[in-house]
UniProtKB/TrEMBL annotation:
It comes from Nonomuraea muscovyensis. This is RNA polymerase subunit RPABC4/transcription elongation factor Spt4. Keywords: Elongation factor, Protein biosynthesis. GO terms for molecular function: translation elongation factor activity. The keyword Protein biosynthesis applies.
């Protein structure tokens, strides 16, 4: 995936391996990709040291992320619905992060721009 950022999912997910619910983290590529840790409600940084993906100023962007391992048992790579998350960004602020249940699989691009 190269350089990326991380964002915490606001709602707990239950691990299909150990059955423990916890707050998971997703890696994504949009904004300054300097391995910045974000939470919902934070504004993306565009001042970068290493690299930048995308461009600021879009009204609405959906970025696809990959879920990291279970915070309890460390298991990962469950396949299917357990691989991806969708990060919604409005006016450069992360407004939501959810597990991707669309069934669309991996996107061809790391993010999609939706103008007003």
């Amino acid at each position: 995936m190269g350089l990326f950022n991380r964002v915490k999912l606001p709602d707990p997910l239950t691990c299909p391996n150990c059955g423990v619910a916890g707050i998971w983290t997703a890696q994504f590529r949009f904004g300054a990709t300097d391995q910045i840790d974000y939470e919902v409600g934070q504004r993306l940084s565009w001042e970068y040291i290493w690299a930048v993906e995308g461009e600021p100023g879009h009204h609405r962007v959906l970025a696809q992320g990959i879920l990291e391992g279970c915070p309890h048992c460390g298991s990962h790579d469950f396949g299917g619905l357990w691989e991806t998350a969708v990060i919604e960004i409005v006016d450069d602020v992360i407004v939501s992060v959810v597990q991707d249940s669309s069934g669309d699989g991996w996107w061809a691009e790391d993010w999609r721009v939706f103008e007003a």
